[in-house]
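thread from #wetlab-drylab

HS: before we spend reagent money on co-crystallization trials with MCU, can we at least see a predicted complex? here's what I'd submit
DV: go for it
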Amino acid sequence: SFSLVGLARARPSEQGEFAAELLDDTGRTHSLHMPVATRDAESLCPTPAHLPTFNNSKLPNPFIFDDGRPVRTVADWDCRRAQLSTLIQSYESGLLPGPPQSMFVHFNKTGNATATLSITSYHQGASMTFAPTIAFPSGNPPRSGWPLVIAYDGNSDMAQQNDQSSRGVGLFYDLFGANASASSMVAWTWGVSRIIDALERTPQAQINTNKIAVTGCSRNGKGALMAGAFEPRVALTIPQESGSGGDACWRLSLYEQDQGSVVQTATEIVQENVWFSTDFANYVNDLSVLPFDHHSLAAMIAPRPMISYENTDFVWLSPLSSFGCMSAAHTVWEALGVADHHGFEQVGGHPHCAWPDSLSPTLNAFFNRFLLDQPHVNTTFFQSNMVFNNVTWNPEQWIDWKTPRLA
Ligand code: MCU
């Protein structure tokens, strides 16, 4: 075990990878190589950033490449995921930068059960530090280290999210500039990636970086979904009551509104906050031009596991939209032969972001199977208690593809 005391040498990001050498307190260096989602996308599967002739009022078929070719294999899905990453960043979320030119990590055990992971990033003459705390269980970790849940909470230091005045405000923008196109949710995603970078190089923390989950509720559930979609090292994604802008689809939320429900739509959300890029406002009045929807965002997680939770008591969350959107996304896990890696539970009877005990068995099953290596635990959960009052969910109206079996 060692402490990282500084950065010996860093090469600025290259195509597809960031490389740096970290110096430990015994004078040894440790090399650091990590994939960069955005650059991977360009190199894995080229796509234009915009598809100017795209026009589809239904949910776009996730199994078609931008040039119309069908997605047939598991490798094709990796390529398709990269296309979706590029498109979603271009139209909706703003650009996710790779790692900073260099990082300094300090792990400080502050008590038996707590530690601080201080991460300083240096990039093109700017620097900033954030220092998440880690709570440890008692006892000894599994041989390969503790699993970890990264929970978004009310502290939005990385990127503020109060209202429009939060645009470009926060630690991320101290590093990349207030005019970075990245929305707050992309900034948080970037922060998750840096936490994982830091933990990968901090063995004394005894955390298994292959077993990291991300969660959050409401706006932070939207954020957790985006982190899971863009950061392939997230092993389990758990958005809670994320609603519109999360596990709901823009097209379906608008439909729900058109059917008479007061739900959050894309046109509202770009006025309300800075969760999406300024560019996204150019598309919210004609959703048909978006070559993706949030079933595509969620499907970027596949085949990695995801379970999302929704609350039928809050119409603003657009409950039909979440159910329909996750039903559409589910086809991708089905196509990959891992339908039970994708769960959805939609119940009522509790306040927004409260956790009813009745849901714990499903969450524990996902933890046990995917973070604690219990492969035989059943994780087939996909259900809604929603009473679709005036709104009608008719899958044929929205999903016009047959689910292929990707070999
Ligand atoms: C469900 O998430 C948001 C919602 O998008 C906003 O319109 C509302 O103001 O706040 C929700 C939230 O984050 O509640 C904690």
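DV: The pocket of MCU is lined by residues 218-219, 243, 245, 264, 272, 317 (CB under 6 Å).
HS: ok that's useful, forwarding to the group
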